[in-house]
Batch of 2 targets.
Target 1
Amino acid sequence: MGVNVVPPLPSGSVPPGTGAPAPPRPDAAVPSTPGEVRALLDDAERLLSAARALLDDDAAARTAVQRALSALRSRAARADLAAIPSARLKDVTDGRLRLGVLEQAGYRTVLDILDATPYALQLLPGIGARTAAQVHAAAAQIARAAEETVAVRIDVDHREAETTHLLIALHRLVSAGPDLPRAQRAAGAVREELAALLPAAQPARGRVRMLLAGREGRHRAREAVAEVAGLLAAARASGTPLLLGQTSVDLLRPPPSDIEAWSDFELRPPEYYNLLAEIAALEPDRVAAEGFLPDSVSTRVRAQALDDTHRRVSLRGYQAFGARFALTQRRVILGDEMGLGKTVQAIAAMAHLWSCGERHFLVACPASVVINWTREVEARSTLAAYRLHGPDRAAGLAEWIRAGGVAVTTIDSLHRLPVPADVALGMLVVDEAHYVKNPAARRSQAVAEWCARTERVLFMTGTPMENRVEEFRSLVGHLRPDMVPEIRGSDAAAGAQSFRRAVAPVYLRRNQEDVLTELPEVVLVDEWEEFSRTDLAAYRAAVAEGNFMAMRRAAYAVPGTSAKLQRLLELVEEAAGSGRKVVVFSYFRDVVAAVHEALGGRAHGPISGGQSSAARQRAVDTFTAAPGHAVLLSQIQAGGLGLNLQAASVVIICEPQVKPTLESQAIGRAHRMGQTRRVRVHRLLTTDSVDQRMLDILRGKTKIFDVYARHSDLAASTPDAIDVSEQTLARRIVEEEQVRLDLPPAAAPPPEDPIAENAAG
């Protein structure tokens, strides 16, 4: 038998089941002796067995989720059925049934009838066997409809057995991580090809078999062996055996305990909800999830491939559509409401382009979110992130130019970014793009220049553009000047959906109410900022003095240059664009005063401990009664207890609290019965500071407590049980920061009671 070479697949070909372009198969020498062939086919059978096992294990895990979900839906549906009067059965049977006898016998709800048997119903006077069967069948039909439409909520404060079983079932798939979809596709492709090739190749295992196979059989066997050799070579080159093995191990891990499942869910709820949405088909209405785009655009976007090789996070359906929209339309505005993951969609688009050979990406954003961007890129993708802002920007720029990745800079410094002309950008992302609405501003002109040298541009803004047509025209002028004359104010006047359809080639926006059909009602976002130069000086002085409380509020020492305060104003502005009410909490009176002044006095309150309860309530009442957007300021000790703030759906906490219960109580003022909108909590934090040290210490202690007693009677009755000693915490953090900053210890220790200074009266 001669040595044959398997020709590589054409570049960009798509192996069955992968859904993404794959590199061509490497040339592979075909074994020429029966022994070599047997070894090759044994390897192929092992790979096929591994692929089948992974797919079987994955199917079993998903079946377990479906069973747990069915039980949860059944329980939730039963609660609904108990509130549906039995008279509703007439709607299902076109009014043919006489139900008076059933009601008189105590069968007043659909649940009552469902829990009975047709035989028990038949025993009632005037109810025959046929009627009993029809009544019970009608109740079962309503029950099935209720189960299909019931909302699936995972409530950490009400840990029913059915919900716990669902989390345990989901945990296996969540633990497999973002590699699971790739492993599924690889296993599917291996199974499809090898299942067809191996039977045809079997005669090549020995000379006698080849003789008995006949001329045509021998020819097929040689071709099959050649194809198997090529497939195995490609699988080894792409790491498929290792991927399948590691994923199978993850899928076969023992189930977690109840406490472990709940703790893991609280650490990463998006992963659980993403899987739940995929398995249970909980995705929102497609038209709304696609931003009410016309079919001509949405069909083209859905057809766009989205490679996930360099992505470390699963996407919701609407997020994948957003990334595809950016790739397909090339120069667009992503205007999703805050909280829907615009950053993740941008990262997904860049990760896809990296797989296609692009190597340089540039993000321009406000200084307040530079850190967030670099952290998100590194956490959500395999791409390297470089901060071209601050003292190390020159080194970061040089490394980015050399190695590629995602460079993150500020919009204001974009005009002086020295990027060589031969460095081609795969994509330019401009976050908070409404900042470049003024064509005469230097920042707008810099963005325009970069747009002119970049083929793909993604503008991101949470401000609804249908309310700001002139701003929208200005932004579109950077992207698609040809479209500007087509943008009419009458389109916006016709409503948000009409406007979005009219500008579909360049604009995509989804609202929370349209797409977040089952996410938890509270979403916590840590907003990491950097000290400004003046704030850093104030912080170093406070550390040198050993003044713990001054360290905590140093980020607001000079309001005019405060990065935290700037981010707070951005969050308030974005909430205003969506008509959302905001409550701002701080432990310190002077921080609340600084926020009040920065907002130009257009805020209710502030609420403080020195006020009477009646005065506090009046402030809350006026805030609640205000039409549309409004802001309420409060010290966290005063506003976190005894007040109902469910009018607010955005909560901003100006600094982390020594007592974690202060934060949870303050959030609970907004997240309570009567709240009709999902609550977003933004905690403003400064990197490499007292904020980071506090979180590192407190997270460790609260995690230990969560595992054992978070929902125990003791925890509910004595919330201070999880709070570490304030004095010990203050002293430890001061000492660690003095060492880190190489500052001599202060002559005096930290205040004996660090909570007392500058606190509410």
Target 2
Amino acid sequence: MPDLYLSNNPSQENLEEFERLESTLPPTLRRSASSLFESLAIGTASGTSTPPLPSTPQAHENRFQQSRLGRDDGTPTPRIPSGSKSAHHHLVQRLQHSEHSRSSSPIPMPKPKFNEEIHKPAMNTSQSSTGVLWVTERATEYGFDVQDLDWANLGQGAPEHGDTIPGSFKRPSSVPVPDYSKEYAPTAGIKELREAVANYYNETYRQDKPSKYTYKNVCIVPGGRAGLTRIASIISDCYLSFFLPDYTAYAEMLSLFKNFSPIPVPLDESDNYEMHLEFIKRELDRGVSALLTSNPRNPTGKCMTRTQLHNLHKLCKEKCLLIMDEFYSHYYYDDNCSGSSISSAEYVKDVNSDPVLILNGLTKAFRLPGWRICWILGPEDYINALSSAGSFLDGGSNAPFQYAAVDFLEPLKVKAEMKALQIHFKMKRDYIIKRLSKMGFHFTDGQHGNIPNSTFYLWLNLSHLPGKLSNCLGFFHECLHEKVIIVPGFFFLINPQNLSRLEDVIWYHFVRISYGPEFDQIVKGMDGIERILERFGCLPYKVERH
């Protein structure tokens, strides 16, 4: 370990580094580590083990109030004065003893993001990292390198991109660069690719529909975030609703533009964050005229049924702009891995009058995230506005990659590719669920179950684990020591206006695990989590070490 982490007093260093880690979090999330410290102190002072964090937002709030006011039986909870030497000593001891096999476990010391001694006129230094970037920064400070095969990066939101999937087409190793591709591409994309996208959606989802997409209904964008940013720039004077938990990058996109008011709507954990239509109707009744959601959903891995999606369209038609992030639509496992998928394109009645924008691209389904070639489908008027926005926001997508992508979108080729993808990723999903179930995690199937039927994410509940492991920051800390990267659940609280009422729904007891990487990384990640649970004495079986 580098000298940076060495200390004459390892227990003192342990707590100080944990506090430094907390200091790198966005302000609305800093309570997580403070809450963990407080619970550890209470457990030490009362001579009891620390109970796991609860499994519902209300239970979390009750527990947080209990830690301030007393136990359920009315007996005042032993308190250690905050900031006192005694409090500090108890916290150090609690963190130290909960390690089970180490005298201390320092968290990587975050480097200051900005040097406060240097004056930076007009620079916004309060911008915080998104969840994936934050965990990667912390892991890098602890020695992570993308070339280091000892690490299992189960935090990155990208699929394996090599020639590793049986039946999948070979990833391109070179891209032609003809003279005509050296010019700027139109900000709406080259006509050939726009036509290919429109044809794919017509053949796959709209064969029985009289209204068909044309190239004029397609805008090519340099990545999903760029597409969302373009959309955010063209909507104005409206309330935009979105549902929690969801994609972490929405937070920055929604906070950047002031031409609309974003309204977060927390979903209920008890039925695995089902997006019930009464939620939508309630939002429409209070004046919402734009709705943003991912389907399938990141991080829960759940996809709406065709009936639910159809009803959503009927509810929003002519009342509300429906913005559908469908990047994971081809990672769908409920149809026997046949290559089929669910898309809003199937429920658009008229492509030029129904206010529906659909985002997708090569990033996930074609496993080419580095190409940054994505698209938006929608009515011509919206597409024209999105094209204009591209002229001052991002300048358009890479021209040679657009020409190379045209052949990928032949409908029968896509279906064969998606079938291979679904079989492979379902195998990885089933593997991690089998491993984690054996370790004592609980999974249920069905509409309200927590087994994902889409994406390559698992939304893992830690609430049954002891002490610091039940807190996503504590679990993240321990994973770093096993060279495993996961994303703490509280990053999926998208709160662009810092609404205080949303603090009660921060997911302290969840982490997102990605089974996007190659299978050997999945195995290493599960082995690392197993070692953590073994150290904390909470495995339901004995591990034989050779």
